[in-house]
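re: the backbone from monday

yeah here it is again, tokenized this time
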């Protein structure tokens, strides 16, 4: 059954041109505590005398909460739609992120603040944004997902240099406040105006599409599939390694002798390259096997690691490593979410995508913490 009012990819974009872009802005908020936190690592740990693992522990708590509730949030998306969750979550997460500027130096206080982030991040998980887009796009779903997930790329490109500039000019405490509240004021009105999936009520009170409109597997049937299990394993392994490199890229660059602003801009290259990775991946998976596209993309970080381990301290080598990481990060969620929607349909898309999303979150939670612990032990 065709899920959109357009019979072609062009028709889908003609009827819903703003939806993927509004969803992208929403998704940028969902990663504010992931891609926006690394500029604060060095100034906060230096002021409070914390290890990097202690600093990263709060982040790990928040991501673990996302993993734990990924499936329930996905089921809620299937039941009530994405719009109400997204609007509430954007406001809550931006405000919770800004409150990190009130940290007292107590680790208990730090982890409580991250607990607030953990709760606030639940209504803005990737399922919320991709779920709405999936209901409007079928022929051009890969490209629409690519545009949506560019929100994370935008965040990774903008947040490090902006946060670093705020830290250098205002200090890290005001920087947290300006960072969170400023992004809220930019993003929330646009989501309010343009973000509405087929499961959401219409502007004039029109009822959302009933669940029977969407074809797809039952949850139990999908859970028995070997494809689903392989998606879970691939998601876990991918983020455990690549997100670790991305999270620590700025302090790695600082350790190579780059200034704070140079390290921030080198880190932002990851976000810029991931935009190309997401759009390119979305275009490719509309035309070629998504599993093959993903397999090729996920090998690129091997080259990036070899470059970082080679001892080359020049900006050119660092930039190449950042580009390779960005291209792979661009393919990451695109491939997983596309395969989930294609193999298992949209009837229970939110719940079923919650599984791979939980695996992605687990890798994202423990990978950076493991890397921080390695640095604390080796100082390298």
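seq for it, each position gets an aa:
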């Amino acid at each position: 059954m065709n899920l959109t009012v357009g019979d072609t990819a062009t028709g889908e974009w003609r009827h819903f041109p703003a939806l993927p872009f509004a969803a992208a802005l929403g998704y940028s908020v969902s990663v504010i505590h992931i891609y926006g936190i690394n500029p604060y690592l060095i100034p906060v740990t230096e002021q409070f005398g914390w290890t990097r693992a202690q600093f990263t522990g709060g982040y790990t708590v928040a991501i673990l909460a996302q993993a734990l509730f990924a499936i329930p949030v996905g089921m809620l998306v299937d039941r009530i739609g994405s719009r109400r969750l997204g609007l509430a979550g954007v406001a809550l997460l931006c405000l919770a992120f800004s409150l990190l500027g009130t940290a007292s130096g107590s680790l208990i206080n730090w982890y409580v603040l991250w607990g607030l982030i953990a709760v606030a991040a639940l209504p803005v998980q990737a399922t919320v944004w991709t779920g709405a887009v999936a209901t409007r796009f079928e022929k051009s779903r890969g490209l629409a997902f690519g545009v949506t997930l560019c929100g994370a790329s935008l965040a990774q490109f903008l947040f490090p240099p902006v946060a670093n500039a705020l830290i250098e000019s205002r200090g890290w405490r005001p920087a947290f406040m300006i960072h969170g509240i400023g992004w809220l004021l930019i993003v929330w009105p646009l989501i309010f105006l343009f973000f509405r999936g087929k499961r959401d009520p219409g502007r004039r009170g029109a009822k959302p599409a009933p669940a029977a409109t969407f074809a797809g597997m039952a949850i139990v049937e999908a859970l028995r599939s070997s494809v689903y299990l392989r998606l879970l394993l691939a998601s876990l392994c991918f983020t455990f390694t690549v997100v670790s490199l991305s999270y620590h890229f700025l302090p790695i660059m600082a350790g190579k002798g780059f200034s704070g602003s140079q390290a921030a801009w080198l880190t932002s290259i990851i976000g810029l390259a991931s935009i190309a990775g997401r759009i390119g991946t979305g275009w490719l998976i509309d035309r070629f096997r998504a599993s093959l596209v993903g397999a090729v993309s996920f090998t690129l970080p091997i080259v990036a690691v070899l470059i970082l381990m080679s001892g080359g301290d020049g900006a050119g080598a660092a930039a190449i490593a950042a580009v390779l990481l960005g291209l792979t990060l661009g393919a990451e969620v695109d491939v997983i979410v596309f395969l989930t929607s294609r193999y298992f349909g949209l009837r229970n898309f939110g719940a079923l995508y919650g599984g791979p999303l939980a695996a992605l979150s687990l890798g994202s939670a423990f990978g950076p913490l493991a890397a921080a612990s390695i640095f604390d032990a080796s100082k390298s």
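The first helix runs from residue 9 to 15. The chain has a mean pLDDT of 88.
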